[in-house]
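Aim 2, interim progress. The first record below pairs a target sequence with its structure tokens.
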Amino acid sequence: MNEISHEPVLQQFPDAEWDEAAGAVIVPLGQARTMAEWLLGHGLDYCSNVTGVDYLEREVKEKITNDAGEVETVTRTEPARIDVVYHLYSMQNKTGPLVLKQRTSRDNAEAESLTPVWRSCDLQEREVFDLFGVNFKGHPDQRRILMWDEFEGHPMRKDYTEPFDYEWEPTPHNEILEKHQKGKVIV
């Protein structure tokens, strides 16, 4: 497949950013649905993958050239966030991928659902909701898909800690069953 240029997207949406390291277009807040509809109209007819990436707050060192022309290393703090990443293709033109990212804070994580644009986002956005806790505005059927309804938390978040006991696990197995047999799990 031939690669898709991100330049037309950045021209159409001047508030969008290009993340060179990730090779992704970062969607401006509140414009994901509009951008997705524009991309669909320009031949990107298939979303193959939707996933979440969790970033805890971290310090990043980067080299800059100061006013005196000297190169120095500065440290800045990047806030915690969750990125929802979409891989888009044109099946008709046999081109792709174009990677889009919706960024959201970790607290009350929220993104726009692109399921109304690409039906293939449906189950994958539910998975991101279930495992990362991202609420998708406009999703037609947002509910857990992998974890059981009573499960607390979102297990793919980097700060998730599994409970000592899995009293809510429907059928204990493997390690949990061994812990039960050794008496290490509170029932």
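The second target in this work package is listed in the same format:
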Amino acid sequence: MEFKHDKSWENLKSIYDLKLTAKEAWNKFIEFHEQTNPKTYWTDLKNIDIEAEQIELKQWLEKLIENNPLPKETVALWVGLLKLEDNEMKVPTIYLVGADTYDAEDIDWACEPTYLPENRYGQPALLKEIDEIAKTDENNYEFLDWILPLAYSTFTIDELVRTKLNKIIFLKHHSNINVAVGHDSGDYMNLSTIS
């Protein structure tokens, strides 16, 4: 059975709207795909340890902002998803930049960042693990490589923004900061604001 891009996208958005914990949302998302396209790797994907990595992601984000404070002009943060070459391998990577404009309907604001912190790139172990699991399905890797990193990043970063980040370090100049996450190639999700 073939995956349906539009159904996966709608499922991602509807689960995101529930504002569950990252682990609950991720499992619900995986179970949806497991029902429509049974594969052995879904169990491996459900067993990833989101909570443990959230601690590391929280520390990385907060340290990044503490060492490179947001300028007064920055009103939005973009968490980008890409793959960087490392020893002839493409490694799943996230990065953080900021902008002095924001538009929920058009991601162009993220294309010209005005806040470029040092050490803005991170390579979360779970994104690598998800990528390795996805590679086991050669026929569907292109689809899995699109939706899984986006879903994982959406759920985990949104939970960090809503419940775990030390918001004071982000809100020195504004009462809220907009946040979005997505692939540099286009697909993205607007997340909860830091407020």
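The longest helix spans residues 141-164. This observation will shape the mutagenesis plan for the next reporting period.
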